[in-house]
Amino acid sequence: MLTQNMLSKERKNKLRWFVTLSTMPLLGVLTAFGLVPSANLGLDSGKISIEQLTLPSPAPVAASTTSFWHTERLQPGDTVAELMQRLNIKDAAASSYLRSSADTRTFRKLAVGHEVQAETDAAGALISLSFLNEQGAKFIIKKQDDKFTTSTVAAQLEKRLFVRTGEIKTSLYAATDAAGMPEAAANQLTQIFNGDIDFHHDLKRGDKFTAVYEMTYSNGALVKTGQIQAAEFINQGHAYRAVLFQTDATHSDYYTPEGRSLKKAFLRSPIAFSRVSSGFTMARFHPILNKWRAHKGVDFAAPMGTPAKATADGLVAFEGVQSGYGNVVILNHQGSLSTVYGHLSHFAKGLHKGERVRQGDVIGYVGMTGMATGPHLHYEFRVNGQQHDPMSVALPNALPISGANKVAFQSLANKFIASLVQLRNTNLAKLD
Q: Taken in order 312, 376, 394, 295, is the CA torsion positive or negative?
């Protein structure tokens, strides 16, 4: 019994040594130990050896290469310091370079709304900064060997087609905003159809529009809103449609699907968005003269400084001050037609008697000079010197599609009109 206890104790001691040795930390060398009596292995004790195995050195830890990207738009009154703070740039050397280097003058002259993208490290040091200039070229500022360099990538312009649909619930502006249409495209929509639709009076709740327009991108960033390629406006149940067609290398115009030009010789209104505060009438109580008299024109109420545009191609017959009109411009047009623009705050720069102007050119700005109680534009349409209601007078059309272009136009028109009908009640983001 005692012998068995002694043998058991000996086995326990050997087990403790085994556990202790096998759990010792490795200090760069792995040692193999014989823990079992050699007799039990059937080996000659003289042939047992101890071998040292060298472990490979641990690999060095790579330095962190994490970078962070930030994008901001220039806001009114922004300084370099304020923009850098929003971009999370905490780099005195970069600040000095952006503030004073001749190479970064374009950066310091960026207009409000431009997008700037910056790459920084975890500490806020600038790695790179990029933005697009007015022409779409990409400026890249990079840090190389503790110095900053500026390079330019030429504009890589790409045009994409977008489609927007909307329904009038309160106003056209509200509907185009709700549809996600850029303001420039919304203005084009009114310009295309203002010969057929009086946007001051004719819009009704439930009217719908669909427009396919271009957006120009440079190096992946939006540069500008391009022209509407096709549009449909359903006003009081009647559908008006337009397709843009390039008539030659430098000219394009909008036509109905049948090839009739939508361009009128005269626009209905010299102001894009405004309210008619006083219409054409033979009896109106004059707020300044305090008596009844004819009002042979239309007053468009608009904020001070709103651009007033020529409603047709013409020649400046008068530019100056004229009695109750205040600052006034008179344009002579084809035949015996003329238009009058009164109460202007000031004239377009360089405008003078004898100058030729084109339809849509800015000739002056809304004011309240002369006999006016508030800012508005007084507009007259004259035939042989006699005033006619500009909101109801028949306006001549431009020439239709020529016979030489008819086949090419019809193919283009059919494609776009089919798309407009299909997309009329949708609100897609892109038309591929």
A: negative
